[in-house]
Amino acid sequence: MAKMWTGRTDGVTDKIADDFNSSIKFDSRMYKQDIIGSMAHASMLGAKNIISKIDADTIIDGLNGILSDLESGALEIDYSAEDIHMFVEQVLTERIGETGKKLHTARSRNDQVALDMRMYMREQTDIVINKIDELLKAIVLKAEEHKTSIMPGYTHLQRAQPVTFGHHLLAYAMMLIRDKERFFDLKKRINVSPIGCCALAGTTYDTDRVMEAETLGFSEIALNSIDGVSDRDFCVEFTAAASMLMMHLSRFSEEIILWSSWEFKFVELSDAFTTGSSIMPQKKNSDMAELVRGKTGRVYGDLMGILTVLKGIPLAYNKDMQEDKEGVFDAVDTVKMCLDVFAPMVATMKVLKENMLSAAQKGLLTPPI
Ligand code: ARG
Asked: How far is Cα 321 from Cα 312, in angstroms, rounded to an integer?
């Protein structure tokens, strides 16, 4: 695909450099945000007479066409493009001609990518919050069912005092409620519009940043243009909240694994959420819980990754920042998958309350009556 930045250079790059530089393999997932952001930008440019209304409408129609063609599969992403922003603009220009190039007036890829990331992460945060709710529902229902089922409560993994299984489960509900609050809270800081910061210093065009922000559902605009294009705190915050959530799911997984063992036999996971062994037919393995415990490590890794990428970057945009995406997207995908599997795994988990009760009756938990 032809380069759009052939100013100082002739734009003829080595194939190895092209592949190295390209982010479309992982940023194409933001195509919808990119297109919707561009539509808002074109309509602001038209409303402020920076481009003609006719041009603005032509651009918006063109973008609408690209969005529906991508969605229907009529248009495929060209992975030889540098990134999703270049791809969309290139297709637009092919379809509507030179007018397509006017879309990039009073804009840079620096504020564009920051905008796309914020719109994408805002949507994903809502999805994660809903999935936490689904898991909370499964936990609360199970706890309600077992509000009088006695089990040993542990400290140091030694039987300590009798508790109910419902009480024990609701400890996890409390953790998840705090996790949910963290995602709600960080969404406020995601929901700040960077569009109009341009490359770093804004623009001399008389743009309307508030209009764009409102069209796109942002509650605030970035107040400092240099910060607007270089802030990725929201990615760190999301990954930190995701790490905390995974830590909780991992502790819960660990208990489910222990409880499913012959040594405890407090619960039996449904066949639908366990695996067997090819050589030991007696086995029923808690693979889903083990994988959640294992995937916690990769989300912590994603957090360390983004923190480390950002720590030495001078203001404002530097290409290092392209490295924000894969780790953060991996954290998004991983927590979503883990929550998806966890809720039905808990809902279908059989609680062997007689075993719990008899364990509570042994081990000097209560003074003999
Ligand atoms: N693909 C780039 C990224 O993800 C987009 C921004 C490029 N900006 C630039 N000045 N080269 O960060």
From this structure: 11
Q: Tell me, what CATH number does 44's domain have?
A: 1.10.275.10
Pocket of ligand 1 contains residue 239 by CB under 6 Å: no
For 132-168, the pLDDT digits (tens) are: 999 999 999 999 999 999 999 999 999 999 999 999 9
- Decide whether any atom of ligand 1 lies within 6 Å of the 110 Cβ: yes
Read off the pTM: 0.95
248 is catalytic: no
Q: Note if 167 is an active site residue.
A: no
Distance from Cα 24 to the centre of ligand 1, integer Å = 11
Domain boundary among 76, 105, 134: 105
Considering only residues 62 and 10, tell me which one the structure prediction assigns the higher pLDDT: 62
Tell me, yes or no, whether 274 lies in a domain.
Answer: yes
Question: Does residue 231 have its Cβ closer than 6 Å to ligand 1?
Answer: no
- What CATH number does the domain containing 351 carry? 1.20.200.10
Asked if the structure places residue 355 within a domain, the reply is yes
